[in-house]
Amino acid sequence: MAVFTIEELTNATNGVLIAGRRHAQITGVSIDSRSLVPGDVFFALKGPNFDGHSFAKAAAEKGAAAIVSERELELPSVWAGAVIKVADTLQAYGALARHHRQRYDLPVIGITGSNGKTTTKELIAAVLGEKYNVVKTEKNYNNEIGLPQTLLKIDDSTEAVVVEMGMRGQGQIAYLAKLAQPTIGVITNIGVTHLELLGTQAAIAAAKGELIEGLSPSGLAVLNGDDPLVIPMATGFAGESLFYSLEKPDSHGKNQPALYMVATTTKGDCEVVTVDGRWGKFEFTLPLLGQHNIANALAALIVGLALGLTQEEVVCGIQRVEHIENRLRKIEVGGITVLDDTYNASPPSVQAALEVLHDLNNPGRKIAVFGDMLELGAIAPEAHHKIGELTAASGCSALFTYGPLSVSTMEGAKRKGVYARHFTTKDELWLELRSYLAPGDAVLFKGSRGMAMETLVEKVVAHHKGGEE
User: Fold this and answer.
1) How far are the Cα atoms of 170, 192, 381 from residue 202, in angstroms, in the given order?
2) Helix axis angle, 89-101 to 172-180, nearest 10°
3) Are residues 150 and 163 in contact, defined by beta-carbon separation less than 8 angstroms?
4) Domain map of the chain by residue range?
């Protein structure tokens, strides 16, 4: 529980106390009047579709000890709490979270990258959980609101913090790093997500690299040694950099990985992986499918080993990771294997999912159901077309697509001889897919978050469980 005096809160947020007692105490932080607990300070945040100032009165009536606001408020006359005026409530919220984080001397692991952030965060938290009491980002709350929420959960029992950092432009990771002050920075990869906003992969790399720039010289950078845009991030960093790789190093390699994959075997829903490197050779079982998830696991193993965990502890931690919703979740229903990877999509993540589909040992056909990949900018038509061609190379018998950009995906698949159909509505797609699927088939669903392709997964599951006609 984050506890502050009003004076401490005022100083941390660079605010002005305009009502209330300076030495009163608050016992929690809230940005939602519905879940506010008496004694909380309420931050009146503003967004595109809401203004927390409209809920300040409700917060006061529920027992808020203080309200942080950008303007004058109409509050109950009997309310005895404090009002602190600030220039920007969002910036003030972040400043308080930074102040709270500075109270504690403990490892803080920051994670960013184009793909795999949330999975890597869960893997690191699972590994560290074998030895430490861990506070981590919930779900993917990785922005300027979600990250402070995580930091404000730190208390005297916390021994390590794992935070995911997302971005939609230059300077955003730098801001989040300023709040979290990470001691370890992990970069998973640099893809083409956000290309529409940032223009080039180099610009995306620069934005993600702000995490490493935000580390102190005593910090540690954990970097994907297979990504040519990530490798150079070690050059300008004064601290130690450790690389991980899915390939064995050669004697001429410039960056020798601290941990690398020697061999892997898929067994059911798991990958059994042998690795070698700085900590010697050992084996672990990863309850997630795909080479991309093995790479994420290598990053987590390095973090754990670097923080003093034993091989046995990190291996146990990896095995305990829980499957993450809508990320290559394997569902068996009605004799059909469903791969639900609908959380998001980019060209590298679609390729990774297709590799998992290809390697499934199902007796029937392999089918892909794809929605648009968003935020790709000028490369969108070509990227979608290439994904269509890739469905053929991945052994797909059929492809069903939804969304205007996915017309190109359908065309690319058709050129390679795949039975491919495009639909303007998900209802139309479902009607054909429902009649097409047969026991023994394996079907992969994927698309960007805005396409909500999980609704089709729900239809397949409900139908084959007998819940829908």
Assistant:
1) 12, 10, 20
2) 40
3) yes
4) 4-88, 104-319, 329-464
Nearest to 116 by CA among 273, 297, 274: 297
Write down the CATH number for the domain with range 104-319: 3.40.1190.10
Residue 407 burial class via C-beta count within 10 angstroms: exposed 0-12, middle 13-18, buried 19 and up: middle
In the predicted model, is pLDDT for residue 468 greater than 70?
Answer: no
Q: Distance of CA 416 to CAs 296, 359, 393, 409, Å?
A: 32, 20, 9, 11
Burial class of residue 314 in the structure, from the number of CB atoms within 10 Å of its CB (0-12 exposed, 13-18 middle, 19+ buried): buried
Residue 286 makes CB contacts below 8 A (sequence gap 6+) with 270, 271, 272, 273, 293, 294, 297, 318, 319, 321
Q: Return the closest-CA partner of residue 372 out of 350, 351, 340, 390.
A: 350
Instruction: Enumerate residues 6+ apart whose C-beta is below 8 A from 20.
Output: 6, 66, 80, 81, 82, 83
For residues 345 and 323, give the distance between their C-alpha atoms in angstroms, rounded to a whole number: 18
CB 271 within 8 A of CB 294: yes
- Output the pTM of the full model: 0.92
Q: Which residues contact 263 (CB under 8 A, 6 or more apart)?
A: 273, 274
Residue 79 near residue 20, CB atoms below 8 Å: no
335 and 363 Cβ atoms separated by less than 8 Å: no
Q: What is the 3-state secondary structure (H, E, C) of 47-114?
A: ECCEEHHHHHHHHHHCCCCEEEECCCCCCCCCCCCEEEECCCHHHHHHHHHHHHHCCCCCCEEEEECC
Q: Which residue has the tokens 């229903």?
A: 333
**Distance from C-alpha of 336 to C-alpha of 326, rounded to nearest angstrom:** 17
Q: Which helix (H) or strand (E) holds 169?
A: none
Burial class (CB in 10 A: 0-12, 13-18, 19+), 139: exposed
Q: Which two tokens stand for residue 441?
A: 């088939």
User: Which positions ≥6 away from 9 have C-beta within 8 Å?
Assistant: 15, 26, 41, 66, 68, 84, 96
CB 306 within 8 A of CB 241: no
For domain 329-464, the CATH architecture is Alpha-Beta Complex (3.90)
Percentages of the chain per state (helix, strand, coil), in multiples of 5 = 35, 25, 40
Q: How many CB atoms within 10 Å of residue 234?
A: 18
| pLDDT surpassing 50 at residue 469 | no
- 35 membership: H or E segment, kind and range: none
The yes-or-no verdict on residue 467 having pLDDT over 60 is no
pLDDT in tens, 154-176: 999 999 999 999 988 899 999 99
| 4-88 against 329-464: fold identical | no
Structure tokens at 463: 């139908």
Fold of 4-88: 3.40.1390
